[in-house]
Amino acid sequence: MDDLFSQPKLAPTRKVTLHFDGGTPCNIPALGFGIGYGSYRYTGLEGQMGNGEPIRVSHGIPCSNNAAEILTLCVALEKLAEMGSPETTHVHVQGDSKIALKWLNVVCGQHPKGRTKKVATGTLLFTESIGRLRKAAEPFNKIESEWLQRDHAVAAFGH
C-alpha cells in the first residue's frame, strides 16, 4: 500500500517479456563453483537491441547455479532500465528457476504470503545478488513472473 507521500504509479505504456536462464559448469561447492554465465532475451522491444535475440553474459566469477540465475536476471533488468522508461514498463519475466523467480516476487512484494521479511541464506554472493535484484527491479512499473519448464530455456538458449 502506498503511503500518503508516494507518487502514484503511472499506467504502463509498454509490456516487455524477459526470458532468462543462468548456470555454471560446476555447482558443487566442495569442488569449487564454476564461472557463472547466463542468457536472456526480450520480446516487445521492436527495433531495439536484444528483441528476440539471445544475449549472452559471463559473470566472470565462480558462483552457484542459483546465483548465476539471479545475476543474469539482474543484468537483464538493468539493461532494460537503461533502454528507457522503466517507470511505465510492465515486465513479464519467464524462467525455469523457481528460486530466482521466488526472490523476484519477494523483492517486488508479490510473494504469495504477502510482504515477507524473508532473509536470503547461502553464499555471500547469493545474498548480495538478492540485494542487487531488489535495486534492478525497483524502477519498473510492474513485474510479474512465470515459471516455465526447463525445455523452454534449452530451446531458447541451448543451455
Report on the structure:
The chain is an alpha/beta fold and 159 residues long. It has a single domain (14-157), classed as Ribonuclease H-like superfamily/Ribonuclease H (Nucleotidyltransferase, domain 5, 2-Layer Sandwich). Helix content is 31%, strand content 25%. It has four helices and five strands. It has helices at 65-82, 98-107, 124-137, 150-157; strands at residues 14-23, 35-43, 55-62, 89-95, 142-147. It has a five-stranded mixed β-sheet with strand order 3-2-1-4-5, sandwiched between helices. Helix 1 crosses helix 2 and helix 1 (65-82) packs parallel to helix 3. The longest helix has 18 residues, at 65-82. It is globular, with a radius of gyration of 16 Å. The protein starts with 13 loop residues before the first strand and ends with a helix.
Labels describing this entry:
globular, 159 residues
**Can you summarize the main beta sheet?**
5 strands, mixed
CA-based shape: globular
Radius of gyration, in Å, reads: 16 Å
**Unreliable stretches:** none
Number of extended strands: 5
Q: What CATH first level would be assigned?
A: Alpha Beta
Helix tally equals: 4
Percent strand equals 25-35%
CATH superfamily: Ribonuclease H-like superfamily/Ribonuclease H
Helix content: 25-40%
